[in-house]
Amino acid sequence: MPHSDFVAALLQRMTLAEKIGQLNLLSAGEGPETGSPATRNIEGRLAAGQLGGLFGTKSVASVRAWQEIALKGSAHGIPLFFAEDVIHGHRTIFPLPIALGCAFNPQLWHDVARVAAIEASAEGINHVYAPMVDIARDPRWGRIAESPGEDPFLAARYAEAMVRGFEGDDPRAPDTVVSCLKHFLAYGAAVGGRDYDNASLSPEEAIGVYAEPFRAGVAAGAGSVMGSFNALNKRPMHAHRALIRGWLRGTAGFDGLMVADYTGIMELAAHGLGDRETVAGLALLAGIDMDMIGEDYLNHLPKLAEEGLSRPESGIDIPAADIRAAIDEACGRVLALKERIGLFEDPYRYCDDERAASLPLSPPHRRLARAAIAESAVLLKNNGILPLAPGARVAMVGAQADDQTNLLGTWAVSGDHRQAVTLLEGLHAGHTGPITCVKGADIVDDRILADRLNVHGQTVFLDTRSAAVMLDEAVDAARAADVTVAVVGEAKEHSGECSSVTDLGLPAPQKRLVEALAATGMPLVLVVKGGRPLALEPELALADAVLFAWFAGTEAGHGIADILTGKVDPSGRLSAAFPARTGQVPVHHQAEATGRPYPGRFEKFKTGYLDLPDTVAPATGLLPFGFGLSYTTFAYSKPSVDADRLKGVDATATVRVTVTNTGARTGTEVVQLYVSDPVARITRPMQELKGFEKITLAPGEAREVAFTLNRRDLSYAMGETMTSVEWVWDPGTFVLKVGPNSRDLQSAQIVWDA
Ligand code: BGC
User: Fold this and answer.
1) Nearest ligand 1 atom, CA 35
2) Do 593 and 461 form a contact (C-beta atoms < 8 A)?
3) What is the Å distance from ligand 1's center to 292 Cα?
4) What SS3 class is residue 227?
5) Which fold does the domain 631-753 belong to in CATH?
6) Hey, which of 268, 334, 710, 732 would disulfide with 279, CB 3.0 to 4.6 Å?
7) How high is the pLDDT of residue 37?
8) How far is the CA of 261 from the centre of ligand 1 (A)?
9) Which of 87, 180, 261 has the most ligand 1 atoms within 8 A of CB, as the residue to mutate?
10) How far is the CA of 497 from the centre of ligand 1 (A)?
11) pLDDT at residue 602, rounded to an integer
């Protein structure tokens, strides 16, 4: 990468030790941590010019204090940058990313990132470790909570909107931050859904599916990318030269900063790539610019830069000159990032006490967080009980009905749950009838699990009363009310990093609670909280309505009450399929074409499983990607295409559909376009999402929605290896399908000749 004159001149003046110092990245340790740092001696590192950036600060005062020490410790006055995990908001916490994915709304994603950037930068932060854009198709994996979901097209739109929201138009503006696409690559494809486990993917899936949001995010201007803990096809990502230097920097054209994940370089040794010195050399040569937490660059690069790295037994022979060149390159990128955001001109650019005091959790930010809930919560079932009748007597039941500690969800490291609105508070403010509230059941009844869930602060409180006493109390409350709203689901840390599960059903005590409430025969609404798709087959059968509210953030109570009372229409559509049972995962709508079962034969294999009812689609789950109900109903016309025969590279096809609000209320619909390519050179997905549009219609109103496709939209990734993958296109028939979700579609056909 050609550096600016300023960076080139600075590099010339720096010693090798000073350059290596810039590649070191540590945590300030002012908030929760996900591992054990190699050192806590930040002051010592700064005084010696051995730190390039710091993450995890919690105030302007602390940023200023660290910056002062850094400037004194650096012979050339090189400032630190300050990073933070700003995953779904900074102080104002928005619904989880998996929930935001359900909004199908790039403008909302942009605005959420903008607010997060305003709040984080107001506190001195200028670099965020977001957006997380790992495709996730196995809900056993806890970090699906942080992901925009299962679909590459949706995730790519999410990536570019978030990047633009964080980075704004001017990187030097004090309210913009450098974004970071993470985790590169295929972290979400961990085998068995086990966090940190490795992934094995075809080149077509790795590049055509998992890399898509990275491609889009890089094109939108992401300033950094973070490596991923896993190996992909046997090659640990922190040493994956072909994907980092080859695909990411080469094919995708990324010229920003490549940062390691937490001790990700050190962990290459545990992956079996060699001792700590070896892995430091391998990571650097692979293209990881900064070492987070493990300090292997700091400890080993000085020697490698003198002697090179020679490990004949592993076929490694890197001359010292190559190591020195790679150090220059990496250091140049760190400096370029600091230059780009104006830190050399003003190291305190982002330190403004007034902004810090007024912006975080400001009323407009809270309003956006509240509005985001209507767009991200998904109504899974409604037999007409919702919205609640005004004046109805409501029994709120559940350990999370009046609980602040579980509202924010995972990775809300700067969020304060004491600022969050409980569901009971929200309903009191929005509903006119009397409301009683009882607990009914513990979230879980297993002490070991409860301790694990309480790892980042207590959110699970085991009751001293017996389960039977609590159930009786819930049943009595339900009988005395017109309708019961049971708030059930996961605890805050049930989903998140290192939080994989083997059972996607509701925890046992809450299952029993739902059964007991349903047995009263009284109307029952479930508000389900979770950070992952859950297997809710029994509860969907028992309840009159089910609203999947995810972890909705600071404004949870208000936003969920807005939906329950009908003040707003729920317009979330699933960003990841919900399986019927845990054993059905992974599930997603891009299931591949197979040879069997073929129509009429092997009927018992219709679902793919002997023990699943025929109503469940084989691979796509109980509730498919894109699914969600509104309080109104919509009718779709048959889709039409402007021409059913096309020719040539530059042609475009436009498909049109008219959507009518056939109900009695104004409502919002997500119109979705999928494409199938029935004949191709390789096995293809049955369909791929290629467009979506969110529209709001008054009762009786009809609107035409048009999607235009070009040849790139109909091409697909193909290659023998990940680095030789190309996007190819086959002439012939394509099926264009439009509808309200990935299952209920009507189609039109086109023939596109070469
Ligand atoms: C996570 C990253 C995060 C980093 C710093 C790691 O454990 O995988 O997503 O950015 O910690 O907090």
Assistant:
1) 7
2) no
3) 9
4) strand
5) Immunoglobulin-like (2.60.40)
6) 268
7) 75
8) 6
9) 261
10) 9
11) 54
- With a 6 A CB cut-off, is 747 part of the ligand 1 pocket? no
State the amino acid at position 161 in one-letter form: A
CA 94 to CA 83: how far, in whole Å? 19
- Round to whole Å and give the CA distance between 282 and 265: 9
Ligand 1 centroid to 432 CA: how many Å?
44
How is 408-459 classified by DSSP, letter by letter?
S-SS-TT--GGGSPPHHHHHHHH--S-EEEE--S-S---HHHHHHHTTTS--
| Angle at 69 (CA atoms; ends 65, 74), nearest 5 degrees | 145
Nearest CA, atom 10, ligand 1? 129
Nearest to 440 by CA among 494, 477, 385, 391: 477
* Atom in ligand 1 nearest the alpha carbon of residue 129: 10
CA dihedral 584, 587, 592, 596 (to 10 degrees): 20
The answer to whether residue 138 is catalytic is no
Instruction: Give pLDDT, residue 614.
Output: 77
Task: Measure 351 CA to ligand 1 centroid, in angstroms.
Answer: 24
The alpha carbon of 202 and the centre of ligand 1 are apart by a number of angstroms equal to: 26
Q: Are 103 and 96 in contact (CB under 8 A)?
A: no
CATH superfamily of 361-566: Glycoside hydrolase family 3 C-terminal domain (3.40.50.1700)
- Identify the active-site residue in 261, 562, 677, 730: 261
**Cα dist from 412 to 96, 141, 239, 406, whole Å:** 9, 18, 30, 11
CATH superfamily of 84-340: Glycoside hydrolase, family 3, N-terminal domain (3.20.20.300)
Q: If you take atom 12 of ligand 1, which residue's CA is the nearest one? A: 85
| Atom from ligand 1 closest to the CA of residue 34 | 7
Under the phi-then-psi rule, with left for phi > 0, alpha for psi from -120 to 50, and beta for the rest, what region is 674? beta
Give me 75's structure tokens.
């012979």
CB-CB contact of 193 with 175 (8 Å): no
- Give the residues of the chain that fall short of pLDDT 50: none
Q: What is the pLDDT of residue 320?
A: 98
Cβ atoms of 525 and 544 closer than 8 Å: yes
Residue range 312-329, pLDDT digits in tens: 999 999 999 999 999 999
Q: How many Cβ atoms from other residues are within 10 Å of residue 740's Cβ?
A: 21
> What are the structure tokens assigned to 10, written together?
């600075």
**Which ligand 1 atom is at minimum distance from the Cα of 33?**
12
Residue 167 CB less than 6 A away from ligand 1:
no
**Structural tokens at position 695:** 């529209």
Please tell me the residue having the least CA distance from ligand 1 atom 8. 261
Verify whether ligand 1 is closer than 6 Å to residue 261 (CB atom): yes
Q: Measured from the CA of 180, which atom of ligand 1 is nearest?
A: 10
Ligand 1 atom with the shortest distance to the CA of 183:
9
Compute the distance between CA of residue 300 and CA of residue 415 in angstroms, rounded to an integer. 37
The pLDDT of residue 140: 98
DSSP string across 287-330 = T--BEESS-HHHHHHHHHHHH-EEEGGGTEEE-HHHHHHHHHHH
**CA 133, 135, 137: angle at the middle one, nearest 5?**
150
Q: Which of 230, 262, 414, 500 to mutate to test the pocket of ligand 1 (most atoms within 8 A of CB)?
A: 262
Ligand 1 and 129: CB distance under 6 A: yes
Whether 84-340 shares its CATH topology with 361-566 is answered no
Q: Atom 5 of ligand 1 has which residue's CA nearest to it?
A: 262
Residues 6 or more apart whose CB falls under 8 angstroms from that of 15 comprise none
Q: 505 — phi, psi (to 5°)?
A: -80, 170
| Model pLDDT, residue 365 | 98
